[in-house]
Amino acid sequence: MRHIRILVFVFYLCACTAVQTQTSTPTFSAAQIDAEEQAVYAAVLGQLYSASSFVIMDTTATDPGGVENTEQTLDYVLQNLHDVNPKTIENFRERNETAAPLQLDMDLGVAYTLLSQAERNNIFGQNQSGWEIFYSRYPDAPGIITLSRVGFDAAFDQALVYVGTQSDWLAGAGYYVLMKKVNGAWIVDQKVMSWIS
Length: 197
Description:
The structure is a single chain. The protein has 197 residues and is an alpha/beta fold. Helix content is 41%, strand content 26%. Residues 6-25 have low confidence and may be disordered. It has one domain (29-196). The radius of gyration is 21 Å and the shape is globular.
């Protein structure tokens, strides 16, 4: 009889621990995730660039070619980042399996224009003065920015995002940026260059 009581008590403790574990991980609504993603975009753009406006590709990517090489690139990036939460990487992979359109009404705290691939082709397909045309239309932009979806850890205090910039024919670079939330604000923690031209 005593063994049965001990066994029941152990099951009770395990059940309580399981419930506590489930409720200790915060859950976030789609609207909260969108707001956090926009906050990460705003922070990374503000901390990496000195610009009053941005031109951002309207579809996400994880490198200049899109999202096809994400796994290969992540293998390299993870060798050069420290203290990355596995949930952050898992979420980044999930959210970047396919390219996604960026929202037209993002709150980035700065002026921006979303540029479609068709518009980009129109600017650069006319002749070799594509960058002159681009900067005549967008004189304050640091070039064309490409963003990935943001990967978050479960507590939404660590984030991983890809940011690429092309500013001339042979002037560009891409970075994977690890962000952390400090006192409610996102800051750049680490960054790894994934390509340069």
